[in-house]
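Fold this sequence, please.
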Amino acid sequence: MTCTIHPRAHPRAHPWARIAIAVAAGVATTIAGACQPAIELPVLHQVTDFELTEASGSQFTRADLLGRYHLVDFVFTDCPLACPTMTLEMQRLYKEFSSPELGFVSISVDPDNDTLEVLSAYRDRLEVDADRWHFLRGDIDAVRTLSEKGFLLAASDLPYGHSLRFVLLDETAQIRGFYQSDDVEHLDQLRRALRTLL
């Protein structure tokens, strides 16, 4: 898109002409705002195959990530530190970007305590749609492997050693971005990316 230069009125222009110029300038400003450089989202990694259990009790695999974009994080419901903030930020994004083309996935790093019932109740408290935000659990070794090799996220000492990053996936389950959930600049970059994609 070519950005428009703001027009200027001649000092002796008729008042109505000045109004017309001002309106045109406002439109030009709006257009210029859309002239931001396109965000490049390189393919960083292909998520590996996995099989976990959704809070509803159904199986959830890599195939369930196909067909729409997803934001993924690793958390646990009893976390007293970063997880509440991560989930709150994810909930904000859920409300802000209501497109059905974007799904959300939270994977528990504390499956001993995060039973299906606990995860389901946790989702209910967030008041989110089960079709758009999935809560998953599985064997701790499988979750650790998925975090480290499937999503390239640290998982050295679970549950507390999980990553604080959000992972953006495209429609083919390829990683297109990592965003630190407690970094304002990273979250702004994530929002810009989502506005570009959706």
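Residues 45-197 form a domain with the Glutaredoxin fold (CATH 3.40.30.10). DSSP finds five helices and eight strands in the chain.
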